[in-house]
């Protein structure tokens, strides 16, 4: 597209070949002939771009500068545009390569995560000692709680006297037992028949007897 005749100024839109998923990158170059062109380089700039990042734009400007210096003294617009065309095609290929690398990286990360899930964390002296310290602390806390519970249970345990004071039914428990047994208690008198035959010393006759 010609913008002016004096000085000669025009734009050329350069588009890459279609890459993966039919995506393309594109830029519009603006050229202005200087008075002594082609013995001096034309003025050039990128007036628009699509799907190019800042690094790509910088690389294209450097490429134009290099090609203009190398072709000084010759008609060079076609050469400059061709160089930019090749650069855009490279960028499309780089995008494809970058996406493939990102995909492979994600696959490697997923595979590594799966391995960690099955194999766990390798045991080292450092992480074992950390685990041991944590385990001992948890075990000590469990023991403290248990001792506290046992101590509390001991405080709450009632003596026999306290049980009788709280439940008067225990006062007649023996009587109830006898009634349930029919109030019949048999005594084997033969156990006491030969009590008189036992030679039992009177405690008072014992020289070692001490009533205190």
TrEMBL record:
SUPFAM superfamilies to which the protein is assigned, alphabetical: UBC-like (SSF54495)
Keywords from the UniProt entry: Acetylation, Phosphoprotein
Keyword Ubl conjugation attached: no
GO cellular component: cytoplasm
Keyword Phosphoprotein part of the UniProt annotation: yes
Segments of this protein annotated with the region Disordered: 99-118, 191-212
Entry-linked SMART domains: RWD
Any coiled-coil regions, as ranges: none
Positions with biased composition (Basic and acidic residues): 99-117
Pfam families named among the record's database cross-references: DFRP_C, RWD
Alphabetical list of InterPro entries matching this protein: GIR2-like, RWD_dom, UBQ-conjugating_enzyme/RWD, ZC3H15/TMA46_C
Protein family per UniProt: Belongs to the RWDD1/GIR2 family.
Function text: Protects DRG2 from proteolytic degradation.
Protein name: RWD domain-containing protein 1
Organism: Aptenodytes forsteri (Emperor penguin)
């Amino acid at each position: 597209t010609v913008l002016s005749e004096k000085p000669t100024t025009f734009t050329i839109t350069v588009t890459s070949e279609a890459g993966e998923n039919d995506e393309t990158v594109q830029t519009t170059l603006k050229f202005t002939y200087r008075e002594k062109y082609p013995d001096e380089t034309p003025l050039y700039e990128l007036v628009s771009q699509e799907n190019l990042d800042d690094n790509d734009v910088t690389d294209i400007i450097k490429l134009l500068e290099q090609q203009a210096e190398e072709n000084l003294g010759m008609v060079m617009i076609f050469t400059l545009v061709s160089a930019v065309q090749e650069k855009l095609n490279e960028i499309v290929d780089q995008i494809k390569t970058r996406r493939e690398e990102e995909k492979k990286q994600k696959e490697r990360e997923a595979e590594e995560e799966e391995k960690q899930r099955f194999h766990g964390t390798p045991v080292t002296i450092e992480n074992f000692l950390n685990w041991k310290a944590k385990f001992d602390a948890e075990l000590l806390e469990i023991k403290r709680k248990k001792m506290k519970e046992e101590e509390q249970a001991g405080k709450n345990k009632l003596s026999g006297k306290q049980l009788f004071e709280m439940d008067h039914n225990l006062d007649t428990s023996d009587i109830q037992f006898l009634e349930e047994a029919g109030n019949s208690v048999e005594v084997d008198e033969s156990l006491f028949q030969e009590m008189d035959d036992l030679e039992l010393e009177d405690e008072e006759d014992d020289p070692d007897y001490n009533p205190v």
